[in-house]
Amino acid sequence: MADAIATSVGAVLGTSTVTTYVESSSGISEGGRTGLTSVTTAICFVLAIFLAPFLGFVPGAATYPVLVLVGVMMMGGVRDIDWNDMEIAIPCFLTIAMMPFAYSISEGIAFGCISYTIIKLVRGKAKEVHPVMYAISILFLIRYVLQYIHIV
Question: Could you state, in order of their start, the residue ranges of all structural domains in the chain?
Fold first, then answer.
């Protein structure tokens, strides 16, 4: 639940939280089930702040293989999608497809949320959509409208 909230809030605010789920599942699979794992991760991130300037020396091409591996791990969940249910399949596809097209995970999440909500509304299944999903979709739409008229 914490990962879902962090990902959603990050996407609404325009930040990218690409590896939230992958990092959590990796930590749990390695035995990290207590808060100590999170504390250790936080300490590593604080240390990374001071080491970040040195990462500029590493060419971008050196990071691509790792990104491919993360993408492969993230795609493992795709097999659990019911691709025969178009009310689910279309938002899932738009989420996956929009990430590389828009160069933004946040945009992919936004398109998925908005399309899911719209499809459920059009199909007359508005009660199946959680109120939080309505709120997220409306916030994303407001963001796009403001961005379109160049306010944000």
Answer: 1-60, 81-152
Question: What are the C-alpha distances in Å from 74 to residues 41, 43, 49?
Answer: 20, 25, 26
Torsion of Cα atoms, 5 then 21 then 12 then 124, to 10°:
-80
3-state secondary structure the chain: CHHHHHHHHHHHCCCCCCCHHHHHHHHHHCCCCCHHHHHHHHHHHHHHHHHHHHHCCCCHHHCHHHHHHHHHHHHHHHHHCCCCCHHHHHHHHHHHHHHHHHCCHHHHHHHHHHHHHHHHHHCCCHHHCCHHHHHHHHHHHHHHHHHHCCCC
In tens, the pLDDT along 83-142 reads 999 999 999 999 999 988 888 888 888 999 999 999 999 999 999 999 999 999 999 999
Cβ proximity of 128 and 120 under 8 Å: yes
Query: b/e map of 102-112 (b: 16 or more CB within 10 Å)?
Result: eebbbbbbbbb
